[in-house]
Fold this sequence. Notes:
Elements: E1 4-9, E2 20-23, E3 37-42, E4 47-57, E5 71-72, H1 81-94, H2 98-105, E6 113-120, H3 126-131, E7 138-140, H4 148-159, E8 163-170, E9 176-183, H5 187-196, H6 202-213, E10 219-220, H7 221-228, H8 232-240, E11 244-251, H9 272-286, E12 292-297, H10 303-316, E13 320-324, H11 332-342, E14 346-349, H12 355-366, E15 372-375, E16 387-393, H13 410-421, E17 425-429, H14 434-441, E18 446-450, E19 461-466, H15 467-473, H16 481-493, E20 496-500, E21 509-512, E22 529-531, E23 536-538, E24 545-547, E25 560-563, H17 567-577, E26 583-586, H18 596-605, E27 611-614, E28 627-632, H19 646-658, E29 669-674, H20 680-686, H21 690-704, E30 711-719, H22 722-740, E31 745-757, E32 760-769, H23 773-790, E33 795-800
Helix pairs in contact: 1-2, 5-6, 6-8, 9-10, 19-20, 20-21, 22-23
Domain Helicase ATP-binding: 284-450
Domain Helicase C-terminal: 547-704
Keywords: ATP-binding, DNA replication, DNA-binding, Helicase, Hydrolase, Isomerase, Metal-binding, Nucleotide-binding, Primosome, Zinc
Amino acid sequence: MAEIAQVIVDxxxxxxxxxxxxxxxxxxxxxxxxxxxxxxxxxNGTRKVEGVVVGLDETSTYDGQxxxxxSLMDLNPVLNDELLQLSQWMANQTFAFQITxxxxxxxxxxxxxxxxxxxxxxxxxxxxxxxxxxxxxxxEFNPEKLTKPQLSQLLKLKKQEKVEVVYRVRDRAKxxxxxxxxxxxxxxxxxxxxxxxxxxxxxxNRLLSYLQSIIGKTIKLTExxxxxxxxxxxxxxxxxxxxxxxxxxxxxxxxxxxxxxxxIESQLKLNDEQQIAVSAINQAVDQHQDKTFLxxxxxxxxxxxxYLQCIKRAIDQGQTAIMLVPEISLTPQIxxxxxxxxGSDVAVLHSGLSNGExxxxxxxxxNQEAHVVVGARSAIFAPVTNLGLIILDEEHETxxxxxxxxxxxxxxxxxxxxxxxxAPLVLGSATPSLESRARAEKKVYHQLMLTxxxxxxxxxxxxxxxxxxxxxxxxxxxxxxxxxxxLAQRITRGEQxxxxxxxxxxxxxxxxxxxxxxxxxxxxDISLTLHMDTHTMKCHYCGxxxxxxxxxxxxxxxxxxxxxxxxxxxxxxLAEKLPNARILRMDVDTTRRKGMHEKILRQxxxxxxxxxxxTQMIAKGLDYPNVTxxxxxxxxxxxxxxxxxxxxxxxxxxxxxxxxxxRADKPGQVIIQTYNxxxxxxxxxxxxxxxxxxxxxxxxxxxGKYPPYFYTVQITVSHEDEAVAAKAIFDLASFxxxxxxxxxxxxxxxxxSIARMNRRYYYQMVIKYQHNDRLHALLMQVMQTSQKLKQxxxxxxxxxxxxxxx
Length: 806
Ligand SMILES: Nc1ncnc2c1ncn2[C@@H]1O[C@H](COP(=O)(O)OP(=O)(O)OP(=O)(O)O)[C@@H](O)[C@H]1O
Ligand SMILES: [Zn+2]
Ligand SMILES: [Zn+2]
């Protein structure tokens, strides 16, 4: 029993991690539980907000008059004790508010919407009543949709106290239902009914028998029709006669791509290295140890099989497992593999699902109908209980870090949950992040190695082509002679190729040849990108779109030229140079529609094309035995970025994409085109030598005082007025400088490299530190004050361990 509840409320601009105290109405004192969502009054009384119960007390020690909880939104808690604790920890780690963290952890369907209504409390003149209120007592109040005169009239009414604003919180979570039937009579009563039936009424007779066979159950109407071979009309007659009741049955929206769960595939026989890894992990599973393993295995070494066998172990012991993969829609192959192994025991969570589908998968996990969860970043919050194992595949992927508040890294959350449950965590990759590999070096993580490809297939041979030389030999082209010949050869042999281009769009930008004018986004400091499919110029940051100019807006010359390359342009050149090649293109433009990823990959898998041309999204996880050639058109794109992780990202990308070649019996070849053939990231990727890359890169990081030797935190400030943003960041810098002392290194403040975006100016600074006890408290203080500043249009974000430094 509880009389008093501690509630964290969701009030924008007045966020705090401190709960408010409310009185629990008598009716619910036995029902209310920690982790339930509630609606509570806030402020001067008429305002209603959503909150989450985080604590309960039996009796009040509070003297003043407490406000009462308005209503309970859940019959069962949506957050258990573990997830509540996790949200608290996360808020503290990522400089966010706990309520924001809770929202991130719950499916979108459970997020409520607060609506404002204008309620008439006094008579108004007829004209106003009809025009403004459409003859109703209450209208939804949305100032954005009102004209200025309308709004001012309403404000006047408010002042005269003729209307009041009421807030209502609306829950969007709606389980999907279908029509079902359930018998209404007892067995004997059905017998009685039968005796009164006309002998001609055969269908009704059959219905009676059917109903007798399902007494006590509720069956979906579609199913009932199939099982009884009776029509809907007969069931309707039955309902009219009072033989059966029609009911709503809750169903799960199963994502269509994942319905085929018929085949359960058996485990593969492990090779020696795989066996060593599986044994080590399984031992930790058996003993409930919260050990972290780093599974470093070359591409095609069978890491996935290791994951699957360890997951099996956890499930066989009655436990659950979470497996994270980077943005899952990119790797339908992996999901399919897990599904083939565990059937309907798998729940899948990823951004390609509708909110309804996500909510239903979440409920299947919550109801313990699924014990294995596969998903992208946010699946780490899956409401599993009794967790026995967590796996992070491709642990180096930057998409595991959320780039908006709360800026959590799934790897850190995974560690927290693993510790909570005493469960092992496996981080797998062919190219681990330097942070993780360094921890293995220090024995904080337990390192496991798969040095060989499965069945001793050799690693593909990698050739680096110097594009500077190529340019001297022939006219400008995206293809070196070597790559074109290799592609042609594959087509003759009936083998397939994957080509990766590090960009999107037809051409990066257009420029006037006479005056050098480049078309810029009016809202951002960035040039617009040409898109041939829509025949427009687009801004990739704010979405601004305009027509392609025929004449230069600056000097009116007609000499407008397209510069840069993009997948569309490469596709056109390829079609011209290899006219008989069947090409599939995969980039942001061809995969915008739901299900297109899967479709393109399936077509390629069915050998409907010879060449799969795409951006980064084709680099990961694909396992096609017939692919024997991988080409990288421009390995350099990422190297020039002013980011200390540029080499690391390039090495990872080249290794991943190279790994797609020669995974089965036919040997593979990789051709990397570059203007920097001697760069160590490219040379070491050529040799498949991650360990050497790790050593070289660590020295550079050591010299530059970068992660993993130092921690980093980035602070960004933005405002529509550049001077306001600049002043704010310099004020912040001196505030931090005063508080921190000399143990931290401060970079900046500087304008961000894309200084203006969406009409706002951005300034940033980065703090590097090894340990500083005061920094955390100071940054928390910054977060608290940032809310007041937000009302003045100033946005401040604190980003722990940013993944990109541009
Ligand atoms: N023990 C085994 N015996 C036979 N085949 C295996 C074995 N283990 C894995 N394989 C097969 O080898 C191929 C490569 O394995 P898998 O995709 O698991 O490698 P990976 O290390 O996860 O690859 P990548 O990191 O490159 O995506 C798959 O087709 C898989 O079915
Ligand atoms: Zn823009
Ligand atoms: Zn011009």
